[in-house]
Each structure stands twice: as structure tokens, then as C-alpha cells.
Amino acid sequence: MKNIKLQDIANKAGCSKNTASLILRGATKFSKELAEQVKEIAKNSGYIPNYAARNLASQKSDIIGIYTPTINDPVRAGIINDLIQNIHKANYKPFLGIGTPTNGINQSISWMNTFKHLNVALLVLVAQYEMEPKELTNDVPLLVLGCQPPENKIPHDYIAWDRSEVARIAMDHLIDRGYEYIINGCSANTITGQKFLTELKKSNLSHTHFELSITNQTNDLLKIIDKIQKIKTKRRKAIFFGDTLLAVKFMDMALNAKIKIPKDLAVISYDYFPWADSLKVPLTTICQPIEQMSEKAIDIIKYRLANKNSPFINKVIPHKLIVRKST
Amino acid sequence: MKNIKLQDIANKAGCSKNTASLILRGATKFSKELAEQVKEIAKNSGYIPNYAARNLASQKSDIIGIYTPTINDPVRAGIINDLIQNIHKANYKPFLGIGTPTNGINQSISWMNTFKHLNVALLVLVAQYEMEPKELTNDVPLLVLGCQPPENKIPHDYIAWDRSEVARIAMDHLIDRGYEYIINGCSANTITGQKFLTELKKSNLSHTHFELSITNQTNDLLKIIDKIQKIKTKRRKAIFFGDTLLAVKFMDMALNAKIKIPKDLAVISYDYFPWADSLKVPLTTICQPIEQMSEKAIDIIKYRLANKNSPFINKVIPHKLIVRKST
Q1: Widest CA span of chain B, in angstroms?
Q2: Is B195 within 8 Å of B224 (Cβ atoms)?
């Protein structure tokens, strides 16, 4: 970076350092000729205002923090890809932190300290609740994408997908197609799993629930396949997964175990997956419209930064069922 | 954020502002009692050092810029996911910029200005050469991941995958399997496409090359399928793609057009894809070992920041062929 100083520009333009600074920051009270001259000199000399100094002087930060457990899935990668580009186009600086949940709360605290040190103007949490940064949210506006706040949490802005709707869509579709024996393939610890269990109980259909651990999924999936093969019923069976990546893994293993999909067992899952049509058995999915998410998010970010004390904005975006051959 | 000032802490501890500042930045020349008292007061009052002020005072930045065209593919998402976590664990602040190449050079310039404003200590470019930030690289160390610099570019640190190796691995595998009529499905504008064309010419096998545009891929793929169906040869045919996401799309369309894979046409592609086994026809791929990339990258980042003027580090990481049913 060239070390052209503001004083050099002022000297060349024959004005004070203060005047040059005001002109470069957009002040219009000076003559058009002088303003153009200062801007021209600054441009030609490659002058870059010192970011740290400017940030300090204005005491206002233009950094928007984004925090997510991973970008190794198409839903989060898609949202964050658009979000980073849109935030930057709106002249803010998006700062992305990634902390895997398996690495625990310490990693999360370390990222929250970074967000504090950077003096972020606002924090966006993407599809993650476990690590809500309580300390930070007391001072910095929080926008949560993908989840609704549990009842015991402090209120904030959010754009959520309604997990009750996911469970209803899945259940309605399976009933509609004549499946009578329904298996819940989500963990009862997840919101989606709980909501689907509620729908199952309401439905009066035969059903069962298999608990999945996070740490040993392959083993758990093999156990589920073993149990499914032992179910003695003539009724048509279907399984619901709250995570498409898991459903993809399950389908491979089920096909290997000579289970025919959907004849022996139908599969439906929650989460947008760009390659669902290309799978051995194209997978019926309940999708999040991820483009809408980042568009609406940028509107809320702009609004919140301009209106710190206005009431919280809460939006719920509807899902889309895409029926493929697996059901 | 609470507005506790350094002066308040100094007042409470009965020392000067300068002493409090030095203690909080880790100086050990003061009494243990005073040091502990200052730290305790700072902790209890929720004092956060002003990042902008600190950055300005030290004139040293701990921000590492990362720039990539997209995170909507598993290779870049995987590398960047690990990179952001590792950079943060090493006590630097990773700042990710995303600029799609289709949005052109203006977007790239705008991100480069942001990196300058943030005074990044080093810039990492992930699998992208078109937008090499010439201006920035004159002043800021550059680490390129995934690509080797073309001859006319300025030298810098890189960890690359060798595209000649990709072309050789693909060609050797196809010859080994007895394919005699080879189609190059890469654009001749890409490094991989050029290298594969060179290998094709060396091989003395029958071959053809179809040029793909970036803007209308679906249409181009349909044209390629049409042309392949018109090829009059008894020799066994195979096609190579330099982009697995494109190969996945192509395979769906070819299967729809009743082309049998690999009987009528074998398919092999370049790029790690986590779901290659789950596709209708599991796809033979030449993979980048992405975990190695971020591990080696963090070593180079640390080394370069400590040794500004040392010779450039250039590493080439080998590929891995994973043979599946498509060849």
C-alpha cells in the first residue's frame, strides 16, 4: 500500500488537511472545483483512508458478524454465499465466523470475543441456536436466520422456517400417498424431530421412532436398517429424516441391504439439496427457499442499523415440497 | 457493549492509564498484585479494548483476507470451512470475501478495496486466478490455494494441485480401461482443458473436443449429447470433465437421452464430490485432498507473517483417483 497521506493531498490541492478530509468523506459545502481537484489527486495518488483511524474517529463500525457451525452443507453455504455478497454490496463488511458444534462452547466464546474486538455493528446467526451469544446480544443487535427462538430466550429479529410446517408437509404427503407405518428418523433432541413426533401421535397411524446419535451415525443407520427389516407388517412403510445429508447416506445403505425404495420403504427428508434429482433414487425433499432468506436478511440488517430501538422483526418463510421417486 | 474506559479501570486500581494499558496487553514489569487487580477490574467491568484504537496504535493487523468466487461447491466450501477455523485458532481474524466471476472485475476491485481498508496482513486466494489483485499483491503477501501462477504473473506463495497430473491420471485410467475414442468436455480456456488436450494429442487415440460456454451450460450439454449420439464409431467412448458439478448434470441428461454409462459412454471428472457414490451411476473422480490444503496453508501463513522477505514457498499436492462405476 502506498503511504500517501492526507496532508500530501491537501498540500497539492492548496487546502487544509481538514478540508481535504471532509471532501473525501462526501461534504458538499466546498466549491465544486476544489472538491473535484481533491478527489482527482486522491484517486491518482492511490490514497486509501486509514480504516482503523476512521473507525476510531467515527466510533461506528461497519462490520456485520456472521456465525455458523459449518459451511459444508448446501443450505448454509447457499445462504452465506449470498449474504456475504449482499452485505458487501450494501457497503458493510461481512465477517464470517465458523465454529463446529462438536468443538464445544469454548470455540464459540472465542469467536464471540473476536466479534466484540471487531466491534461488530450487528450479528447474524445462521441456522444455529445452541451457541446463542448471550453476552453479545445484550449490546449488539442479533438477527437469527432459520430458527425461531425457544420460549426462554431473549427476543430478537429473526427470519425462520417453521418446523411445525415441515412436519405437517411431510406427514400430509405420506398420508396422501397411502403410507400407513411411519418411522421418525430424526433425533428427539431436535426441533424438527419433536414436531414430527407430535404430528405422528396426532395421525393415529402406526409409527416408531429411532434415536440417532450425532457421534456414530453410520453405526446408528445400520441399526435402523436392521430394525426396519425386522418390522412385521403388511402396511406400507415410510421414513422421515430431518437432515437430507443423513437421508442420502441412509438410502445408499438401505439399497445395499436390498431394501427397495419406495416399494419396501419410502424416504422423505428436510433440507434443500441441489443434487436430489441425480441420486440413485431421486429423493423427495422439503426445501427451504434459500434465495429469499438472504434478500430479506439484508433488508432487516439495514433497517435495524438505522432503527436500533424499533420493535423486533419476525418473519416466517414457507417451505416447498418437491416430490421425487423416493415416495 | 458497555462503555467502560481504560481511565475508569486505572482510577479504580489507583494506577496510570498507561500502566493499566500495558498490564492488559501482557506487560510483566509491574507488581503481581497490581497486575491481578487491574485484570480483575477489567474483567468484572466487562472492559473490551477498542479494536480500532489498538490496530491503529500498533500499526499491525491480525486480519487475514480470504477471497474466492463462490462457496457453493464442495471443494471451496471444504477448504474455506477448515481455513477459517484454523486461522482463528492461530489467533488471527479470517475475513472472507466472495465475488462471483460473472459479476465481473468491478466486484473484485470493490473487495480488494475492503481488504485494503481493513489493512489485511496477508491475502489468501482460493482456487481462482482470473481476479488476481495486482495492486494489493505489491504490498501484501499473497498465498494462492489450488492454482499455480501462469508464467506472466508475479511470484508468490502457493499450494497447488498439478493440472498436468490431473490430465495424465484421467488419460492413463481411460487407456487402461480400453477406451479408444476420447472426448474433452472441458473448455479450452481452462488450464485443465488445455492440459487434457495436450495429453489427448500425445496419446494418438481418436478424440474430439467440445467447447462449453459458461453462460448457457444446459444448452451446450444438450448439444454435446446430440453430437455424441451422431459419432459413428465402434470404438469405446469416454468423456472427461474438468468440473464434477458439470459432469453430474451431464450424466443426468445423458441417461435421460438413453445413453448407457459406461457402456455407451464412460464419464470421468475432476473435483472432489462427497456424494459421488450416491449418484445414479457412481462417478469416477480425480479428487483434491482438501484437508491437507488448509493444514499446509496455516503453516505458510504463520511462516510468511514472521518472515516477510524469505523466498516464496511453493508446494504441489498430489491427486487421488477414485474409480467408480462410470468408467
Answers
A1: 92
A2: no
How many contacts (CB atoms, under 8 Å) link A and B? Answer: 119
Phi first, then psi, for residue A141 (nearest 5°) are -60, 140
A163-287 homologous superfamily: Response regulator (3.40.50.2300)
Residue A221 host element (H or E) = helix A217-230
Task: Give this complex's ipTM.
Answer: 0.80
- pLDDT (tens digit per residue) in B263-313: 999 999 999 999 999 999 999 999 998 888 989 999 999 999 999 889 999
Are the beta carbons of A248 and B275 separated by less than 8 Å?
A: yes
Q: Could you report the per-residue pLDDT of B44-101, keeping only the tens digit for each?
A: 776 655 544 555 445 568 999 999 989 999 999 999 999 999 999 999 999 999 987 6
Any residues with CB less than 8 A from the CB of B280 and at least 6 apart, and which? A278, A279, A280, B251, B252, B255
A97 — contact with chain B (CB < 8 Å)?
yes
Q: Residue B286 pairs with which residues in a beta bridge? A: B270, B321
Omega cis (within 30) before B94: no
Three-state DSSP at B167 gives: helix
- Whether B303 and chain A come into contact, CB under 8 Å, resolves to no
Q: Which chain A residues are within 8 Å of B244, Cβ to Cβ?
A: none
Q: Is A279 on the interface with B (CB under 8 A)?
A: yes
Q: Which residues contact B195 (CB under 8 A, 6 or more apart)?
A: B163, B164, B166, B167
Contact A179, A207 (CB under 8 A): no
**Would you tell me which CATH number, out of the four given (3.40.50.2300, 3.40.50.150, 3.40.1010.10, 3.40.50.620), belongs to the domain B63-162+290-318?**
3.40.50.2300
Q: What does the alpha-carbon distance between residue B294 and residue B271 come to, in Å, rounded to a whole number?
A: 16
